[in-house]
Fold these 2 entries.
Entry 1:
Amino acid sequence: MNTSASPKPMSVNDVRFDSQGLVTAVLQDASSGRVLTVAYMNRAALERTLAEGQTWLWSRSRQELWHKGETSGNIQHVRGVVADCDADALLVLVDPDGPACHTGARTCFFSAIGGDQDEPFAALADLAATVAARAADADPERSYTASLLARGIDTVCKKVGEEATEVVLAAKGEERDQVIYESADLLYHLTVLWQTAGVTPNEVAAELARRQTPHPAPEPGS
């Protein structure tokens, strides 16, 4: 029997702001799972974020409310705000219009300490965003992605089949490096197929998550 408490609906009044009236806000890309930045909100910033569906923060250096992306144009559209178990930190799930960092990087966290960065799912989300951008405005004469999309679903499906075969052949030949190379080609062409078919990576991820949900065993004799 599961005795864990069910999550209770919360309001701004339940958030535990510190002695300065602030709460830590972790901004996360809702699609890729990449942590974009860590900032602070006061009550007014949180209320505006919830009311307007865009990220508002409190600038400790300027001592003023800060609409994320107001100057750069890289607005963040908020999908949801979640409090931690102590209600003294917030996770803000966003769909960013552009880079989150003032350096122009997608995230403020890009300097690995003691090892390489390892964000495979974020890389796939970045690829999907690039393919979508090519579909919107790239010249088929200058972009391979745009040319594939212009040729239609039949061509894209054929390429996915070809790349899948290349992965199988590399695996059968025990060519590890080639498996990696061909798998990357397959994922790229599969992403193009999703774009052509009107499918998003989030929908595929949701289906994978659904399959991981335990299902009750069938009754005997059913």
Entry 2:
Amino acid sequence: MSPSILEYPVYLWQLLSGFRRKHEEMFAELRWQDTAPILGKRDPLNILDLGNGRLRPQYTFLKSAGHKVCGIDLVNCPEPSVINSLYRIAQYLYTRNLAVPRRSLSNQTLVCGDVAQLPFRPGSFDLVTSVAAFEHFLDVPAVVEELKRILRVGGLVWVCIHLYTCPSGAHNVTFTQIPLVKMPHGTDVWDHLRRRKLPYDVPLNEWRRDDYLEAFSEHFEILKQYCAIREGVNFLTPELATELSTYDTDELTCHAYVIVARKTS
């Protein structure tokens, strides 16, 4: 069961109304709070937006703030198609809601490439940021090792991961509820951790919270880790908690998980 086609008008409304902008602004604010006290006033920063996405929201925010930003994603070299044409319209609708001077978005640096084989020199960046992308990387250890290589000593990684273990973690129930508040009719909550009746539409590594922490700890100093958005607390009955007892409540209900890490050597 894929998200309903009826969600697309909702998605369009979210773009026009500014809902998506406010959601992304929250992540931008969290990143600033977590990194500014450490990076100081090095301005502009050399920043890599890892897995920038089709709408490129965080790339846009960072460019508008005057930083030198490079985005890397396979979607940066799309082939002509109806879907890609629609996304170009969506990009326009998204950016028109932003108080961003158009000149700040000129000379965009968007690289089409493999995040596990980054085409950058060692020590090229002060900060690597990634929002809702790591869950799609199928070789996370290789990506993390590459981040260590391309960051300068003292540079930071700020990643926000849509955890697989949350109710919407399989990316197959909805794309308009952020966070998930209501399950689609006839859909079992946490199906992907239980019966796995619903197919996946996107690649997912199925990593858990502690898997990410271990991978980053091998190469970086973990400065901070926390849950930025929760969902599913209202779904977690005592019966479900017992059935899913191999997972703790925190990872079952964390939609957006943030890791802040520093390269020390």
